[in-house]
Structure prediction request, 304 residues.
Amino acid sequence: MASSAAGQIGAPGKPPGKPPELESFLNRRLFHPLARRLAGALVPTGISPNMVSVAGAGVVLAAGAAYVGLPWPEAVAVGFALHLLWHVVDGADGDLARLTGRASPFGEVVDGACDYLSHALLYLVLATFLDDHIGLWAYPLGLASGLSRVAQANHAESQRRIYMWRTYGVPWLQQARATDDELFRRRGPVARLFLAGARGYIALANALSPTSAEIERAVASAATDPAARRRLTRLSRHAARRPLFFLMLLGANPRTVILGLSMALGSPLYFFLVETTVLNLLLIVSIREQKKGNRKLAELLARA
Prediction:
């Protein structure tokens, strides 16, 4: 799921926003303020958060079309601008869901599906464009880059959601499944397709997420003990400072900038190479940092 997908689950009417430690500079200064304004403007229109998610997918596809269909340098300017706009729309669906009381696990799944599917098509468009320069090798390279994105984005997003659950008690799909939420009891072919994606997302998140029994026990205790919740929040924020930095490096913002720079150089080849090498190395480092953060938090909890 995309970062904004986390926003689909929350208390109705709760002001949009995230803890400052999860906010990158661009999100804090540009994307999220604009997303909140857009969501506020959409409240009286009756447009649903899911419709905004679909619109976000359309913006991604428009960015891809601009990157490969317009002459240089207009292609770079328009494609990059549209991809930046996607970040705003991607945040507005979650904000709108909270403002209108429509936040739900199903909305989180729809948002994530729109983000992943639209970017899969974007990668196909970029690979087709690259085919004219390096031949059929463009497609396996684009596939490797896309699969890398899935793993990197899943890790970054799920770890942020795990952090929000541990630190602030904000639930996500993992808790919805654990409590047998209505989402996981839906029937019908479309619902089954969405559920398959949600289960796959959770399975991949678990595979890329270091676990700690001590921390899970502390989270369970904090649910009924206000003092334990305050202690867990304080210690979790302290232990996660370094791990959160690597999650930001694996987020969508750096990837959008790298793609824009790559297209400014005339080809998505550089973007594919960076994503399959540099960002995968960062993924390995991030998983190790998450393990260290878990050990540090467990030690702090034991002392407390």
Notes: The domain at 3-303 is CATH 1.20.120.1760 (Four Helix Bundle (Hemerythrin (Met), subunit A)). Residues 64 and 122 are 5 Å apart (CA to CA).
